């Protein structure tokens, strides 16, 4: 599979070349967004369905705006506004939505593989906007874009992903994407929140933040998903913060040019100190901005667009 | 009704027979083996040249869903799948609705099977009432009704209850069959805990959740001097524990399911819910150990854990799909694949599909001994065919082997001297 395939379900389906193409197309859209009229007609007359079965602010808004800037007709659906609350199965929902003949379906769902199930049940393109703890490929792409923009290149960087990796689709997509682009990835967190055997994917695992920070070029904090933390995975938030929060004291040990990322939403003072999140080394708002152009690029490429079309 | 199955390779591991000859059936019983000669082509004779003639296969672990879930499978469709797969004797698990924890359910199963008239069925009754893990069922009454073993299959049996069940069953000389799962370790787990689950973000069911119970069960069987049988082993450590238990003289037996010998956890990257099974598909090192255990006879029997589920139940996200897959129609060809791969000899394979499970359940099947009931399977060991969805005669279609090229095909299945399946 490549970007010319029907769907985007996993980073694993993309080659490094595909990823470069997406990032370069996103750069072209960044120019488009500086024009006085920010719309391009690429998806005019085409329907994009934003199907968010799980709560989301930034991803849903970002996809909606991206589709609108490409002139698509956008329909937003949430779990509570769909027939899923009436007991309709996901496969039946897929068939119903397919009958409306959309060009693209964007789905977020709390179950692993939900986007795959939709993709096999529908003829339209399906974009995975998060399937449970498994993947969130557009987040990883926007993170790559943000890192490339800030550092010039991804190759050879050391990226520390810190926190609740166990429940994090952001971490899973990023560890695949970053390694594909030549970065070294270290997962940092308490042993109970790092999936056992994850080293098989090529990453390093370390349980001491202070050991990893001095060599990291990027420190990516993850949200502690306290609502999913049960069965003694963590004794308390206080104990987590004492060991793994990105604070000014921690940052003192870091490289001078080390940068901070967080996919949001942030638990201020838990996984990251507010002054760090809002500070000069934080890329957090860039991540949100870049999410829009990445999603425009993806919709554009999945619908058969070619990078040259944007050059005028 | 007399039958002559001529010039086939007759393999009867129970009697240490492996020779070319003609099997003679008279009045529904095995009458004897005659030397090979030119086929007579007379009425009631079948030319089995190039084919294997063996005892009708015995599957000691199936779910027939009858009574209660007949939309998935019933005794008739399950019987059809059995004979098409070469099986003439099944032992069915008690997780029906109602649970088989009382003689009326046991008797219903047996009567309905007789009415269908294709196979012999031996119900396995529940260890505890409602398989709730609290009170023992009436083992003696259930034995009289026709039950041959006890299991709360799928529901873990806690240590205290297991001890009492073993003690109580041993006075009837009946085995306890255990699913071996420490649910406190495997809770919510849907696949093998390993590299693949780490990346897929699916909750892991670690191998240790099985092997800790295998160890516990062996200890309890030694303590009570009772017979314990481990269902569908799936890990290296479980095989090691059973090996150690057998060496120590404990009365322990074990089975393995074909899917655990052929499919690995990496296949779940497809999210195909037909690969969702309990215990889960494991990684390659475990598969190697299971094959080794089978070869060395640490694992006695091959049993399918045939578990039909309707299409609409399986057509959902992986986490929500029920556990289980079909096994009856694919077990023999997959077993023959083990012979082609030199894991097992043909005689060894047949023993694991006939006399060994029959001995564990203490039932008079799985041999071609003169005078025994004429249950016979005839198969072409090297015939290549493709397993297609249309070939499935179960009510459900949840097989991960659809589309697979198979070597070895059942040609005829004979039950009580009557041909019940012909290709």
Please write out the topology.
The complex is a heterodimer of chains A (312) and B (423).
Chain A: H1 16-32, E1 47-52, H2 58-69, E2 73-78, H3 90-99, E3 104-109, H4 114-121, E4 125-131, H5 137-151, E5 158-162, H6 169-180, E6 184-188, E7 204-206, H7 209-212, E8 218-221, H8 237-244, H9 248-252, E9 259-261, H10 274-277, H11 284-302
Parallel strand pairs in A: 1-2, 1-3, 3-4, 5-6, 5-8, 6-7, 8-9
Chain B: E1 2-12, E2 17-26, E3 29-35, E4 45-47, E5 52-55, E6 57-62, H1 75-84, E7 87-92, H2 103-116, E8 120-125, H3 139-145, E9 149-150, H4 159-170, E10 176-178, H5 183-186, E11 191-192, H6 195-200, E12 204-205, H7 208-224, E13 228-230, H8 236-247, E14 252-256, H9 258-262, H10 284-295, E15 301-302, H11 311-314, H12 331-340, H13 346-353, H14 355-361, E16 376-386, E17 405-415, E18 418-422
Parallel strand pairs in B: 1-4, 1-5, 6-7, 7-8, 8-9, 10-13, 11-12, 13-14, 14-15
Antiparallel strand pairs in B: 1-2, 2-3, 5-16, 16-17, 17-18
């Amino acid at each position: 599979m490549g970007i010319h395939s029907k769907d985007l379900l996993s980073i694993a389906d993309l080659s490094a070349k595909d990823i470069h193409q997406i990032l370069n197309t996103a750069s072209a859209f960044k120019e488009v967004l500086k024009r006085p009229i920010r719309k391009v007609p690429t998806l005019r007359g085409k329907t994009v369905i934003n199907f968010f079965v799980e709560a989301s602010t930034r991803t849903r808004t970002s996809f909606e705006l991206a589709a609108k800037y490409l002139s698509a007709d956008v329909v937003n659906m949430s779990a509570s506004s769909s027939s899923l609350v009436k007991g309709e199965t996901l496969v039946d929902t897929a068939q119903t939505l397919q009958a409306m003949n959309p060009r693209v379906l964007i789905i977020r769902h709390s179950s692993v593989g939900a986007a795959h199930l939709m993709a096999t049940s529908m003829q339209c393109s399906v974009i995975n906007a998060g399937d449970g703890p498994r993947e969130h490929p557009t987040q990883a792409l926007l993170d790559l874009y943000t890192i490339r923009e800030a550092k010039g290149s991804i190759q050879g960087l050391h990226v520390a992903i810190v926190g609740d990796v166990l429940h994090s689709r952001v971490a899973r997509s990023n560890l695949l994407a970053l390694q594909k682009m030549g970065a070294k990835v270290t997962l940092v967190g308490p042993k109970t929140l790092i999936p056992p055997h994850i080293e098989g994917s090529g990453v390093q695992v370390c349980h001491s933040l202070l050991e990893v920070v001095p060599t990291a070029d990027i420190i990516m904090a993850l949200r502690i998903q306290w609502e999913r933390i049960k069965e003694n995975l963590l004794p308390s938030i206080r104990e987590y913060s004492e060991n793994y929060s990105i604070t000014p004291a921690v940052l003192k040990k870091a490289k001078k040019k080390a940068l901070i990322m967080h996919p949001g939403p942030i638990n201020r003072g838990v996984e990251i100190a507010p002054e760090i999140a809002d500070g000069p080394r934080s890329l957090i708002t860039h991540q949100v901005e870049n999410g829009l152009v990445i999603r425009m690029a993806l919709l554009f490429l999945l619908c058969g667009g070619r990078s040259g079309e944007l050059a005028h | 009704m007399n039958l002559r199955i001529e010039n086939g390779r007759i393999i009867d591991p129970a009697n240490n027979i492996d020779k070319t000859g003609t099997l003679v059936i008279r009045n529904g019983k095995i009458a004897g083996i005659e030397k090979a000669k030119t086929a007579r082509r007379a009425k009631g004779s079948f030319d089995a040249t190039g084919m294997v003639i063996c005892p009708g296969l015995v599957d000691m672990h199936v779910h027939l869903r009858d009574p209660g879930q007949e939309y998935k499978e019933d005794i008739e469709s399950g019987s059809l799948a059995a004979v098409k797969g070469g099986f003439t004797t099944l032992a069915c698990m008690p997780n029906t609705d109602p649970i088989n924890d009382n003689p009326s359910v046991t008797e219903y199963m047996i009567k309905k099977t007789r009415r269908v008239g294709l196979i012999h069925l031996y119900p396995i009754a529940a260890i505890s009432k409602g398989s709730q893990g609290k009170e023992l069922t009436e083992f003696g009454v259930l034995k009289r009704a026709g039950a041959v073993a006890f299991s709360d299959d799928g529901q873990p049996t806690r240590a205290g209850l297991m001890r009492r069940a073993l003690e109580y069953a041993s006075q009837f000389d009946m085995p306890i069959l255990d699913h071996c799962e420490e649910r406190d370790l495997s809770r919510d787990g849907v696949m093998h805990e390993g590299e693949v689950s780490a990346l897929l973000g699916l909750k892991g069911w670690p191998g240790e959740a099985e092997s800790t119970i295998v160890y516990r069960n062996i200890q309890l069987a030694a303590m009570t001097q009772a017979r314990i049988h481990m269902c569908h082993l799936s890990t290296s450590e479980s095989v090691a524990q059973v090996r150690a238990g057998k060496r120590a003289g404990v009365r322990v037996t074990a089975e393995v399911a074909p899917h655990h010998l052929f499919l690995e956890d990496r296949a779940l990257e497809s999210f195909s819910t037909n690969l969702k099974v309990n215990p889960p598909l494991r990684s390659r090192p475990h598969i190697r150990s299971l094959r080794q255990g089978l070869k060395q006879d640490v694992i006695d029997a091959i049993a399918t854990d045939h578990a039909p589920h309707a299409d609409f139940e399986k057509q959902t996200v992986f986490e929500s799909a029920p556990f289980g897959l079909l096994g009856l129609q694919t077990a023999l060809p997959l077993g023959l694949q083990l012979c082609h791969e030199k894991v097992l000899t043909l005689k060894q394979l047949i023993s694991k599909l006939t006399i060994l499970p029959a001995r564990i359940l203490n039932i008079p099947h799985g041999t071609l001994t003169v005078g025994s009931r004429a249950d016979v399977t005839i198969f072409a060991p090297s015939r290549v065919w493709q397993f297609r969805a249309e070939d499935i005669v179960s009510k459900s279609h949840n097989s991960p082997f659809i589309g697979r090229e198979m070597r070895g095909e059942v040609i005829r299945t004979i039950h009580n001297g009557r041909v019940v399946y012909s290709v």
